[in-house]
Amino acid sequence: MSEKTFVDLESEIEGTVTRESICLEENLIYQKPIDTLIDTPMHYCPGCGHSTAHKIFMEVVAEMGLQEEIIGVAPVGCSVFAYHYMNVDMQEAAHGRACAVGTAIKRVMPEKYVFTYQGDGDLAAIGTAETVHAANRGENILVIFINNGIYGMTSGQMAPTSLAGMVTTTSPYGRDTSRQGYPLKISEMLAPLPGVAYVTRQSVHKPNNVKRAKKALQKALQYQKEKRGFCMVEIVSNCPSNMKMTPLQSNQFVEEKMIPFYPLGDIKTPEDK
Amino acid sequence: MGDLKLMKGNEALAEAMIRAGCDAYFGYPITPQSEVLEYLARESEQRTGMLAFQAESEVAAINMIYGAAGCGRRVMTTSSSPGMSLMQEGLSYIASAELPCLLANVVRGGPGLGTIQPSQADYFQSVKGGGHGDYKLIVLAPSTVQEMVDFVKLGFELAEKYRNPAMILTDGAVGQMMEPVELFDQMPRRTVFPEWATTGKKPGQERRYITSLHIQSEKMEEINHRLQAKYKKMEENEVRYVEMNTEDADYIFTGFGLGARICMKAMQMARENGFKVGLVRPITLFPFPTKVYNDLGARVKGILDVEMNAGQMVEDVRLSVNGQTKVEFYGRMGGVIPSPEEIYEHFIKTFIEGGKK
Ligand SMILES: Cc1ncc(C[n+]2csc(CCOP(=O)(O)OP(=O)(O)O)c2C)c(N)n1
Q: In CATH, what is the architecture of B241-356?
């Protein structure tokens, strides 16, 4: 963590940004998609990356004209209510089983687009088997993987992706890798599988990253259209409430601690396949 | 009329699935029912385009059933006891989200990894819930290969009528035995899907979603009331059973599936020896034929319940009889099949000799 406090950072931002400058066309990061995002307050904590990820993905769905062509699968985790926000047909899966549910939806309706939206506990702990096998079969689906390094919904327990030494409610003295295992790099693990077409790691903690993450989601749906195979967009994210940080501090944690261990960028593209 | 064929129980079940216009099957190999997926893998896609999918586990398979059923497809899975245990969480979600689907449990002896020999020890799991929460499956118990075929059609009909999972509860013996069967004609796969199915948002309509989550307890109680009302309707309208020789009976033998079939032989032996024995065989284990037992309980001297377990359905028989007559139990466990002779002997010992004291 840097020495700067939240107040320091806030005043720094205030010095450079005005309401007018935010509204300039070139400064717009994303807009609220009118058709694909339901007009209702989200239950996410202030500053949580889930809401940004929802918005940019629904923007992509709107821009690509897929609202009527796509079926989503919500996980068990903080994003369990994704279907209250995403204005597309959706199914809520049991904890960890989104890739199995998504597989079946795609197999019975191959002409439709299918995505799952999962946290790290859902995808990389209880649902590892379903994830690995969907990837290995080359299921032509998109998996959006929100890696915040913690169990958000159940209030801050250790996740398979929690960093070494990270303090959580179930690793109160810091994650001890000799007893609690090492943080799992699922994206790197899946990339070598022949069924996998596209794996990329992105984040939504800064404007430029949001733009890049959106591009990655766009690409992934384009690859699904081209029937390239399994695509996963990992989004390294924050959890202000359970990290016991302000939104800004938590984004700083993403920048300074998470991203060095989970480096951003494409891990596999269809060209590497 | 359909074709007449000599078929193995599991293969007849698979054939019936194709003919019933099933859209997709998801399953994982386990003895004594692996022939189902093997048969479908050879036949289904070529004949009707029906998907036959080998999942990575029963956990995945039941959640694939959830996904495909949620798209309004006609779907089925089969397994045997340990695999069916793994499916219980998913089944609870399916029941809560009110998705129609059909399952078959070709039961083997347990507990644990147990044995691959036939058993009826999964009655409680199938009839009383199995997974978490207050829910019910429609449970059908075939005793012949013909019924394996007929109950696939019936199972889909009931599941879709009530938007509820239905299960064929059979055992390794019925699954493996060969018998002549009459097959119904090929039914078309459907092209129009229910109005609740998630098939992609329709223009001008609200999005659809499938869920079992209702955070507000009042809302969740409302859902429970709706489910209970549905189960009550099933109890009123869908009870099915077979009665034999009950008009003049002093005693009743009862059991389900294979157990009942063996009881039939034991009943014949008793009749040949001058004892007026009748038989009741429930076809629907849920909804349970409570009334027939209650009525008979009022006028017979005793009921002998025979099962291939430690005594499971007998609890429902006793509740139905409600103390009006004596209900005795005879069972074999762990994959052992009782003989008609031992059932008859048990009847003599408990009701005839024991009754004289
Ligand atoms: C079978 C089962 N086990 C455990 C839980 C409890 N549970 C709900 S969400 C969750 C973890 C969520 O963490 P993650 O997937 O990382 O998503 P986040 O909430 O951080 O977005 C757990 C353990 C459950 N609902 N079901």
A: 3-Layer(aba) Sandwich (3.40)
